[in-house]
TrEMBL record:
Native source species: Flavivirga algicola
A Pfam family this chain is assigned to: Glyco_trans_1_4
Name of the protein: Glycosyltransferase
Taxon lineage: Bacteria, Pseudomonadati, Bacteroidota, Flavobacteriia, Flavobacteriales
Gene3D superfamilies assigned to the protein according to its UniProt record, in alphabetical order: Glycogen Phosphorylase B
Length: 412
């Protein structure tokens, strides 16, 4: 059985999850390959120099012809991008994707060898209007957000926020995607969270698919593990007695990730002195004399990343919309509890007084109350129990075997 995992990039939440799935499948005997614009692994398990996505500079004469063509006969993708650019000053969003690209993905040599093609986050590499017409191989969609069953946007709130400015284009792309997916003869849909599965079902995009399943992402428990908190803090210059919060700040996803609610909550935190470690490229600023904020920036080394989870008392995950964030799984694997709102995949796995604290009301005031509640009961949370929960639900073997069954059914 040859299966190819396709992601625009090997980086970011979706790319990391797809690459982890690739490694998990190989551990259970599936010939998995991984294809992305920046990193490709063949069916032999070896990284390849993949020239498929490289820019090929056209000749001077061809560039002249292309310029004429763009001026007088622009492609659909060019017309869409022009319309988006003309309205960009009106739009407020985390991310948008156009379902057109210059790549003829069905011609990729690894895809042509595959028995099953597994799409992940594929903005910028998949053209809906051409790929499915030229493909006969069974397809699996692993959703990491809502974009595969939306028009331009990746989450519901962005769609609602911008609808009045770009509704016609958004609807036309929605219809294009739905029509393209409707011609898939052998397909399956997999989501890491039940929340996203329910959202996908309401779209009616996938009613004709063979299977619609929830299979959680997996985590490498050899890297993300319980460590000696006292020793880790000593190495990082953090006092043994500090109350340490950890947060990941993504500058492009600040609204959806709830950074404004976090700041609002932290400014209300009066009776507890705490330290906030901030991973990522985003910035967190809160006016509170009891709060010390330590920006860590982007941390690329997974061992170092794991050490910050181990150093923290609790991980703060105030997302308003989210699927099954890798950061939650990583925190659990390190034995660190999570505070989150009752939304998305967090609602399914943050269990009060066991794996963390789950908040009903999406407000900064509710968030600060949850932090105070956690602080008062900090000794009730046991790292070994949290990690045990993670091993039970997010192991490589569990994920790989579940995917393997879906692939077998599609091939049959």
């Amino acid at each position: 059985m040859k299966v190819v995992q396709i992601s625009t990039s090997s980086r970011g939440g979706a790319g990391i999850a797809a690459l982890r799935l690739h490694h998990a499948l190989r551990q259970v005997g599936v010939e998995s390959a991984f294809v992305s614009k920046n990193y490709t692994i063949g069916f032999d398990g070896v990284a390849h120099n993949d020239a498929f996505f490289e820019y090929k500079r056209p000749s001077l004469f061809k560039r002249f012809l292309l310029k004429i063509k763009r001026s007088f006969y622009p492609s659909i993708g060019q017309r869409i991008n022009k319309e988006i650019e003309s309205k960009k000053h009106l739009l407020k969003y985390e991310m948008l994707s156009v379902p057109y690209t210059e790549f003829e993905l069905h011609k990729h040599p690894i895809l042509q060898q595959a028995d099953v093609i597994n799409f992940h986050w594929v903005g910028g590499v998949l053209s809906y209007n051409t790929f499915f017409k030229n493909n006969k191989t069974p397809i699996v969609f692993t959703l990491h957000d809502m974009n595969p069953f939306k028009g331009l946007f990746h989450y519901q709130q962005d769609e609602i926020r911008n609808r009045k400015h770009i509704k016609v284009l958004d609807n036309s792309l929605l219809i294009l995607k739905k029509n393209a997916i409707s011609i898939i003869k052998k397909g399956a849909l997999i989501t890491p969270s039940k929340w996203l599965l329910d959202e996908a079902k309401t779209s009616n995009f996938y009613n004709h698919f063979h299977a619609l399943k929830c299979i959680p992402n997996a985590i490498d428990f050899n890297v993300f593990k319980i460590q000696n908190k006292v020793q880790i803090r000593k190495e990082k210059g953090i006092s043994e007695n500090e109350f340490v919060l950890l947060f990941v700040a993504d500058k492009d996803a600040s609204l959806r990730k709830g950074v404004d609610l976090l700041v609002e909550g932290l400014e209300l935190l009066k009776n507890i002195k705490c330290t906030l470690l901030v991973l990522g490229s985003g910035v967190v600023k809160a006016d509170n004399i009891n709060l010390k904020i330590v920006p860590l920036g982007f941390v690329g080394e997974v061992d170092e990343l794991a050490s910050y989870y181990a150093a923290a008392d609790v991980f703060i995950l105030p997302s308003i919309e989210d699927n099954l964030p890798n950061v939650m799984l990583e925190s659990f694997a390190c034995g660190t509890p999570v505070i989150s709102f009752k939304t998305g995949g967090m609602d399914e796995h943050v269990i009060n007084n066991i794996t963390g604290v789950k908040i009903e009301d999406i407000t900064g005031e509710s968030l600060v109350k949850a932090i105070q509640q956690f602080y008062e009961n900090i000794n009730d949370f046991k790292p070994e129990i949290i990690r045990e929960y993670a091993i039970k639900h997010f192991s490589y073997n569990k994920q790989a075997e579940a995917y393997k069954e879906v692939y077998k059914e599609l091939m049959a």
